[in-house]
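Title: Request for sanity check on DNA segregation ATPase FtsK/SpoIIIE, S-DNA-T family prediction

Description:
We are preparing a figure and want to confirm that the structure record we downloaded matches what your pipeline produces today. Could someone re-run it with the sequence below and paste the raw structure tokens into this thread? We only need the token string, no images.
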Amino acid sequence: MAKTKSKKAASKAKKPAKPKFKLTRKHHIILGSFLFFFALGLLVAFISFLFTWQFDQSIVTSSQVDSQPKNWLSMFGASISHFFIFKGFGVAMFSLPFMLALTGLKLFLNLDNLKLLNIWFWGCYVILLLSLSLSYFAHDFPILGGVVGFELHELITNYIGAIGLLLLLIFMFIVYLVARINLTPEKVVQFFNKKSESVKAEFQDNTNQNAATSKAHYDTNKTSEGQSASAEATDNNTTEEPSTEPQANEVEFENSLEPKNQNSSLTETNPSDQNSTENKAQQAEKVVIKSNDDDLGMEVEAAKEEDEDDVDTKSKKIVENFGEFDPTLELSNYQFPSTELLEDHGSGSIKIDQAELEANKNKIVDTLNNYKIGIAQIKATVGPTVTLYEIIPDAGIRISKIKNLEDDIALSLSALGIRIIAPIPGKGTIGIEVPNQNPAIVSMRSVAASNKFQNAEMQLPIAFGKTISNETFVVDLAKMPHLLMAGATGQGKSVGLNVILTSLLYQKHPAEVKFILVDPKKVELTLFNKIERHYLAKLPDTDEAIITDNTKVIDTLNSLCIEMDARYDLLKDALVRNISEYNAKFKKRKLNPENGHRYLPYIVLVVDEFADLIMTAGKEVEAPIARLAQLARAIGIHLIIATQRPSVNVITGMIKANFPARIAFRVTSKIDSRTILDAGGADQLIGRGDMLFTQGNDLIRLQCAFVDTPEVEKITEFIGSQKAYPDAYQLPEYSGEDSQSTLANDIDERDKLFEQAAEVIVTAQQGSASLLQRKLKLGYNRAGRIIDQLEAAGIVGPFEGSKARQVNVPDLMALKQLLENEKNA
Ligand SMILES: Nc1ncnc2c1ncn2[C@@H]1O[C@H](COP(=O)(O)OP(=O)(O)OP(=O)(O)O)[C@@H](O)[C@H]1O
């Protein structure tokens, strides 16, 4: 018994040695480079084998070695190539060195996204397919398919015959195309359609120039001799020779309509022979009218489709003639700032201090041992400001034990900024973050120039800084969709805001994004004044775009609510769900600007010192902010709110519920940390841009990038010196409750369309600006102004949020009376 007990104890004691067999990074590098160079050698041997195999074969196969092989890798090359190519699968084995090289590279460079299993599976598949195919098609050259390929081919042919094998090979080839290359028949058809469309477009271009003249000729003479060729091509109504018409489209076209056309005369359907999609629609229309006689139910549906087609074709025609709408056209020469404008701030490279790492490791091991926690393995990841020590505790130690001892361990390690993550989400390890003695500054330049940021396919990419493993961290503000930021004074909030704004300046054209900046401190964001006419949005009739006065904030927020409602109306009208779909549709010219549609830039509202705002304006700001936060995500309005004081009366439940993305710089107490992040940790940060970020689930520790005021100044100066829009982006007018009585009621200053608008409103009994926009084809701002004038005249009631205003005049007679009374007064 005693013996077995002691054996058990011994085996328990030995257990921790297990992880030693795990391949470390060093092993990976050595193995990776071996595989890579072995693959290279193999490739050289294979290539050389193609020229020398006949000579070398006798040497390799005979046991006496009296002459030297000619292979570039001598006997090794000759033998291995003979084995793989001649005796194996033939030239298909050339895939092998590539698979080996990729495996080596993955190990050497630690490429996580290279899927080895996939590569090897499909590599072997290709070898088999190629070897069989070559044995099948080049039966007389067995070297191509190799002995195994050859034998396999014989075996399969015996079972299913040559035709069976051919079918099998075709099937295998299709499987490869579909499963590996993702090629589908639809994609092939799409590709050829695109090709034919571009040919069509070229053809159209050439013929368009002559179209007008040829039409004139047609009207007068029916045919024109000088330009007969082009006239035939553009105005096919006159010709009765579809066979002379160009190309494939025509075939496709006629095929689709053949059944309906069969009974109809050729002359009627001929107009459709034209290549353009516009004519396609015309043809469809005609066919339906005609086929009404022949066939019943079908035509009704066809007519519906045509209507849609018609809208589509109209927009396609405009796109063909003018190209897609380009929102950046007005400032087409706009130059994005270069990253050269930013400072390096000491290169940003991380220096690994071995002595420091060792000392910290010992401290952690000792501390944990004090609490009787043995460590099986420890790994350090050095980040710009903190180093993450990842620990695998001895078998049998419960993570909850470490979690309970979190505070004691932090105290024993006695360093500011220690954070324990037990366990690290997604891993079975425990993380201890220890600040570096010499933190590296993460320059904005390094993150802005990073591939991750430059190639980010996001709507509003923001490069916040670097993660603990020194990776650039880029997130999409549009996905957040709003951001709450808090931190005690001097911990990096203003720098953080500048990082967000500069990120957007580096990625977005002035036509694509507009900022509304609220800066009660009056000093933090003033630099952005220089880009007022490029990037800022403001209320009409205000001088300063950057808002420093709290009462103005209320007007701006309410105006943003109006903009939000207007945008929702536009989205509804366009039958789309969000701003990106809307803008895509607008670019394709499927939305008519005369109906109030316009390209919608993203709007980013930044409020610095939110606490200050809440203290002075309270409910008045909270309500519109909450409303915007709840509803504005789909229509491209995003809020960023920063505060020094994250107390619960500032960051209320309503605000928190709508701001899932939060950033905490260092705060003074655990309570503050809880208020912002719903978790502790922000009180343990070390300041100077050290931050925690959450988007609703995990906390990510980041080092915020650093951008200094002179750098921001350089960027804004660079942008400000370029051609700008005539004015800042105009937000809709908002007349606060106080100013209602002061609404302009001067009859002479009324809009020219005032009376017409009043009639529209009274007839519809609905006081909404969007109605005026649609009926009178007005822009949003003008419609808004007229509504204000109607309110001043007492025709409509006051603003009621998202509801339409009440109409105070029952009918047109009463309106006439009212307006006459006004004039006589
Ligand atoms: N990411 C960073 N990297 C390095 N240093 C930083 C970083 N962020 C801030 N700092 C340092 O901290 C100082 C204060 O930062 P910042 O002005 O952003 O603080 P703040 O939180 O806005 O303070 P306040 O709320 O009082 O305005 C900066 O001048 C800079 O020296």
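Thanks, this matches our download. The CA atoms of residues 213 and 231 lie 8 Å apart.
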